[in-house]
């Protein structure tokens, strides 16, 4: 997917709704990631300055949470493709130093600053972990940490199955998709760990988080999947965001209510050496 499409989706569709966090998947993921950091004594209020870079800073939810735990020791930096997201983050975190750009261009920003902690949460659907790993290794201090959280291709199995049903596809012009067409998420935890190890990181903590999801009807699904940002590329690929009331009612009869789950890897890794 081209960066202009992603930027439009976040600026116009997702940013105004992101902090509503329907079904609290984002908040629960961030809390788990922060628990991993605290277990490594990264967030002590009376500790030294901690320069933190959040790549895919969004509306600043993670950095705000880190400041609640670590206080003024947290020196916040952020990078995001969405200008609107960065605007919201800057309002939330007045001392944020932020740039608007693709995460793949990380090397061009904050060039005079090394970091003790770099966070990438839910960006590897757009920029492969294989691309991000060497860039993050190069920006971390020796012994610094990378907090990774990202969906895998095993996420939303029920929705993936429903989207391929012949009756559903026929009702919507035969459109279909492959997960590989619209995301570059890793396959599973082994894929994440293998990539980290290959690029000079040692995994200090890892958790597979499978939050349960329930959608009573099409509108509830759109709040989560489209406006909430979790499935925006899939939804636009299938044209679901343009459905009229009649087809929405048809989907309510054919598909909903539905229960599903995401599959998220939450990993804390430490820079040790290159293989």
CATH topology: Rossmann fold
Write the H/E string, N to C.
Answer: HHEHEHEEHEHHHHEEHHHEE
Oligomeric state of shown chains: single chain
Quick one: biggest sheet? Answer: 7 strands, mixed
Strand content: 15-25%
Number of domains: 1
Tally of strands: 9
Q: Tell me what the CATH architecture is.
A: 3-Layer(aba) Sandwich
CATH class bucket: Alpha Beta
* Order of the strands making up the biggest sheet: 3-2-1-4-5-9-6
> What does the overall shape look like?
globular
Short recap of the structure:
The protein has 275 residues and is of the alpha/beta class. Helices cover 40% and strands 22% of the residues.
What brief labels describe this structure?
275 residues; alpha/beta; Rossmann fold; 7-stranded mixed beta sheet; two-stranded antiparallel sheet; 12 helices; globular
Plain-language structure description:
The chain is an alpha/beta fold and 275 residues long. It has one domain: Vaccinia Virus protein VP39 (Rossmann fold), CATH 3.40.50.150. It is built from 12 helices and 9 strands. The chain has helices at residues 3-14, 25-39, 61-70, 83-92, 129-139, 157-163, 166-171, 179-182, 189-198, 218-225, 232-238, 245-254, and strands at 50-55, 74-80, 97-100, 115-121, 140-151, 201-209, 212-215, 258-261, 264-271. Helix 2 (25-39) packs parallel to helix 3 (61-70). The radius of gyration is 19 Å and the shape is globular.
Secondary-structure map with pairings?
Layout: H1 3-14, H2 25-39, E1 50-55, H3 61-70, E2 74-80, H4 83-92, E3 97-100, E4 115-121, H5 129-139, E5 140-151, H6 157-163, H7 166-171, H8 179-182, H9 189-198, E6 201-209, E7 212-215, H10 218-225, H11 232-238, H12 245-254, E8 258-261, E9 264-271
Helix pairs in contact: 2-3
């Amino acid at each position: 997917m081209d960066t202009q499409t992603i930027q439009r989706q976040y600026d116009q569709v997702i940013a105004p709704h992101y902090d509503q966090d329907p079904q609290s998947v984002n908040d629960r993921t961030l809390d788990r990631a922060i628990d991993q950091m605290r277990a490594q004594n990264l967030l002590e209020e009376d500790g030294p300055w901690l320069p933190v870079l959040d790549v895919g800073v969004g509306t600043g939810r993670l950095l705000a949470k880190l400041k609640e735990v670590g206080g003024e020791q947290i020196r916040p930096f952020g990078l995001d493709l969405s200008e609107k997201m960065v605007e919201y983050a800057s309002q939330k975190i007045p001392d944020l130093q932020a740039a608007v750009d693709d995460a793949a261009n990380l090397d061009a920003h904050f060039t005079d600053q090394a970091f003790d902690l770099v966070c990438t949460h839910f960006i590897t659907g757009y920029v492969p972990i294989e691309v991000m790993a060497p860039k993050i290794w190069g920006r971390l201090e020796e012994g610094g940490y990378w907090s990774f959280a990202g969906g895998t291709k095993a996420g939303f199995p029920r929705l993936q199955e429903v989207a391929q049903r012949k009756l559903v596809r026929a009702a919507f012009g035969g459109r279909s998709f492959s997960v590989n067409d619209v995301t570059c998420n890793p396959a599973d935890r082994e894929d994440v760990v293998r990539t980290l190890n290959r690029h000079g990181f040692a995994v200090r903590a890892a958790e597979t988080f499978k939050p349960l999801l329930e959608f009573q009807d099409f509108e509830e699904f759109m709040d989560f999947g489209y406006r909430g940002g979790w499935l925006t590329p899939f939804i636009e690929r299938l044209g679901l965001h343009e459905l009229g009331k009649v087809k929405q009612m048809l989907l309510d009869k054919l598909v909903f209510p539905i229960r599903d789950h995401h599959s998220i890897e939450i990993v804390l890794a430490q820079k040790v050496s290159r293989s």
